Amino acid sequence: MTKITPQPGIMDIALYQGGTAHIEGVSNVVKLSSNENPFGPCEAAIKAFEGAGRSLHRYPSADHGELRGAIGEVYGLNPEQIICGAGSDEIIAFLCQAYAGPGDEVIHTEHGFAMYAISARAAGATPVEVREQSRVTDVDAILAACTQRTKLVFIANPNNPTGTMIAQSEVERLAQGIPEQAILVLDGAYAEYVEEYDGGASLVTARENVVMTRTFSKIYGLGGLRVGWGYAPQAIIDVLNRIRGPFNLSEAGLAAATAAVRDQAYVTQCRDANAKWRDWLAHALAQHGVPSDTSLANFILARFGSEEEAGACDSYLQSQGLIVRRVSGYKLPNALRITVGDEASCRQVAHAVGQFKGGAR
Ligand SMILES: *Cc1c(COP(=O)(O)O)cnc(C)c1O
Fold first, then answer.
1. Domains of the chain
2. Ligand 1 centroid, distance to 81 Cα (angstroms)
3. Whose CA is nearest to atom 12 of ligand 1?
4. Rounded distance, CA 92 to CA 215, Å?
5. Is this model's pTM higher than 0.90 or not?
6. What is the pLDDT of residues 135-172, one digit of tens each?
7. CA neighbor of 215 nearest in space, from 303, 115, 147, 122
8. Residues contacting ligand 1 via CB (< 6 Å)
């Protein structure tokens, strides 16, 4: 018997399942499985990335000053209260590592993002799953699940993979009601897709127990570069910076993200296109007998009559070169999550679902 064993909890982690990117034997796939921006990043971000190629021998900035300054300017936040990570995934990991350990509980919701439980377990803490109310975050259920051991409460608003959102007043009630030793983390990965929404930033500013996470992977179209950020009370930022590796972001990533955040005209353009085709797609699917909740994000959670039907539709879509996401791992076996692509992809996927429902298999 080997004496070499990992920390308790590590072997309980189920490997993260990413969105499929390839179909065997099909070269021209349409990938609608990872909520990526179908238009990619803005031109300025690509230019900045290419420019960084000239100085790859230099270590990157360790304090991310320029990017934090740009984010602060654009979002109207104090740069001192911003921390950048290798995707918001890393900010989630920092929070778990810094605030939760063996014996502590980390709350996430029934259909919540997989990284919350993974990072909680990696820190030796215990993830606690709280049911949702018809695929919507249930504040009362979360408050009822809080104990003296609760250290972190994660909600995504809008949530992935449901696409639903709770009102600011509900988020406030949650922040107000959690135990005094707990932090509420508002994951705003899709906040830019919601018009007139600050992702919960004002709540962070007003309170001591709320943190917001954001990402460059979704509307900014930079998932491949791994850049995310968090906005938190100064005391929490000071804690997180102690465990952050000084060179956790590459110079190319920093440069591209800084350029991307400064191009808000592009963000608006992507938000508008997404809203238009998301609503078109939801309507088209509903007409084919495939309902979905009103989504505030850049994807639709399409519901089928059964797990078998969802699986069969997924297979049919694949045969047509369309990759969407099965979400059985998120306790939604009857559903498929479909990223809102460009016009052509939306038309293609609606057409294929129509054919499937009409009997093509
Ligand atoms: C995509 C996504 C993220 C972003 O992860 P990154 O590490 O920033 O790429 C975070 N939270 C949720 C809920 C997501 O869907």
1. 10-40+265-357 (3.90.1150.10), 43-263 (3.40.640.10)
2. 20
3. 189
4. 11
5. yes
6. 999 999 999 999 999 999 999 999 999 999 999 999 99
7. 115
8. 35, 87-89, 113, 156, 160, 187, 189, 215, 217-218, 223, 228
